[in-house]
Design a protein that fits this description.
Number of helices: 2
Shape: globular
Oligomer: single chain
Structural class: mainly beta
Radius of gyration: 15 Å
Helix content: 10-25%
Distance between the termini: 42 Å
Strand content: 35-45%
Amino acid sequence: MITIPTTHFDKRGSHKELFDKKMLSEKSLQNVLRGLYVDMAHETKLTIIHGKIFHVVVDLKTKKTEIHQISDQRQEEIVIPSGCAYGYLVLSELAIVVKKGKGLALNQSIIQFDDPDLALDWPIKYPILSSRDKKASTYAEILAHIETRKALI
């Protein structure tokens, strides 16, 4: 049986849902920034198939930040623990990134890439963002939302 995965296109590139939405393939153009995506419940794995990216992981409890430049040359995989925010900027002309995890839904929370509370040092000031990423929440708003959800449990 052959199936055709759902693919979403916009000016930044495309994003394809693979294997019952447990994996995503994202094809992005240079200077596209995706994220900072938040998943409080699930680990996410990310690898780059083609190109080079500047990748950031932020622990939401401690604000500890890890920055990686990864490329298809190095065959690396990044494991993003639950409770972290992550995002990446495409450094090469084109990048293809594959992500695997349970929390890859389009309704993930997003933190502003340039939130002053996080003070992340991105290589460019004005990346290409999706309309959804432009409307991202602040770090403080995400923390308040997480605390509210904990209180309800």
